[in-house]
Design goal:
Number of strands: 15
Shape: globular
Helix content: 25-40%
Number of helices: 6
Largest sheet: 6 strands, antiparallel
CATH class of the largest domain: Alpha Beta
Structural class: alpha+beta
Length: about 250
């Protein structure tokens, strides 16, 4: 299945290059989005990603010629929203995803799902939005009534905690040690054991240089984003800001 997805991305990139037109995918997870970017580089086209809002995890890729600009309004996605009657219970991301999968649709039809105390929002491909709105009527013990929105509302900020630290360099082992309160040797061991992902892709390079915005994860320890890289201290160490997701 993974090989089929990779080949489909390569085919879309090749078609965009050959015909000089834009080609959109369905929703991709972060690893697939990275593969889409690689396919675009190999074919000499641009791969732009949009999931409905800034920092969306699941996105639609658009392969297009370098001279062509593609705006958010051109992506074939919409936002659906349902009020949650909290007096009848609450729902989790797992409840909502399970209810969606029970419809017999594939995960590529929908993007991120955002659940607040009062609302449930999900992003879907335009072609499937009406069907989802008419058939996704409950999750767990909570009744739902999704409607397709004319405009995408502001999405809530992700939940988590920001904290600061200093590192000797932006190497993966140094930042990982700071982010997860490990020694440098412990961080190196975790990386070499294949337990670390950078921007959602496995990475075993302890000397990889990170960039601002990189998302790190250690199996069983959650995710951390390198939010910002500051200046150097008098001892030539680098100040960084990290965000730990709940």
């Amino acid at each position: 299945m993974a090989e089929e997805k990779l080949e489909a991305l390569a085919d879309a990139a090749r078609l965009a290059a050959r015909r000089g037109i834009s080609r959109f995918t369905r929703f991709l997870d972060p690893a697939q989005a990275a593969q889409a970017m690689q396919a675009a580089r190999e074919q000499g086209v641009v791969c732009s990603l949009w999931g409905g809002y800034e920092d969306a995890e699941r996105t639609i890729a658009c392969f297009h010629p370098p001279e062509e600009a593609v705006g958010p309004e051109q992506y074939p996605l919409v936002c659906l929203r349902s009020r949650i009657q909290t007096k009848f219970g609450t729902i989790t991301h797992r409840d909502l995803l399970g209810a969606f999968m029970a419809l017999g649709l594939t995960r590529s039809c929908i993007g991120d799902m955002i659940i607040s105390d009062t609302d449930a929002c999900l992003f879907a491909t335009e072609e499937m939005a009406d069907y989802i709105a008419s058939t996704l009527i409950s999750a767990g013990r909570v009744s739902l009534s999704f409607a397709v929105l004319d405009r995408i509302p502001p999405m809530p900020e992700p939940k988590g905690t920001s904290f600061s630290g200093v590192v000797s360099s932006l190497r993966l082992d140094a930042v990982l040690a700071c982010a997860y309160r490990l020694s440098r040797n412990e961080a190196s061991e975790v990386i070499r054991a294949g337990l670390v992902k950078v921007d959602h892709l496995p990475c075993e390079r302890v000397d990889l240089t990170l960039h601002g915005g990189a998302v790190l994860s250690v199996r069983g320890r959650g995710r951390v984003r390198l939010s910002a890289v500051g200046g150097t201290t008098r001892k030539q160490r680098i100040g960084i800001t990290l965000f730990r997701y709940e």
